[in-house]
Design a protein that fits this description.
13% strand; 4-stranded mixed beta sheet; single chain; 52% helix; Glutaredoxin; alpha+beta; 9 helices; 4 strands
Amino acid sequence: MLTAELLRHHWDRGLDYHAYVATGTPDQRGSWDRVYAEARLTPEQTRLVRGFTRQMPVLVSSGTWCGDCVQQCPLLARIAEANPEKVRLRFVDRDQHRELSERVKICGGLRVPTVIWMAEDFEFVSLLGDRTLTRYRLMAERQLGAACPVPGAAVPEEETAAVLQGWLDEFERVSLLLRLSGRLRQKHGD
């Protein structure tokens, strides 16, 4: 069970994006930096994120060594940067936060990245891991044998944009869920 206390505990120990990336090796940091430099929200996407009205702590269980994390976590960082007051993003290493990782297994495995969205009081809201639907569709089209791409492998720009939109759709879904929550509407009088 993902209690507010457990989530808050791990979120408090999490790192912001840049501090988290800095924990990787020089080669890992280079891979993350390349994807981060290429990741961009459109003006319309930025307006959408800036319109979020509820705080949402977001915790990502990740690994600096993971190719999927390299290709997707910088996209999460760009989304959070569009509204850092409302989207409060932190990262934890999957292996160093094993208690959390064990509770968010997907299909029986310790998958990364796994993203956990919470309400402002750290109540669990949603979980998505390890890839968006768009990313899975693209992988299925190519019929890749490997489950995880090589870190630093080139990703076509249109694929990155499509995966970014997939993550953004989930952020928007959670934002609307929080905005329409009867519990939070009563608390905020709106």
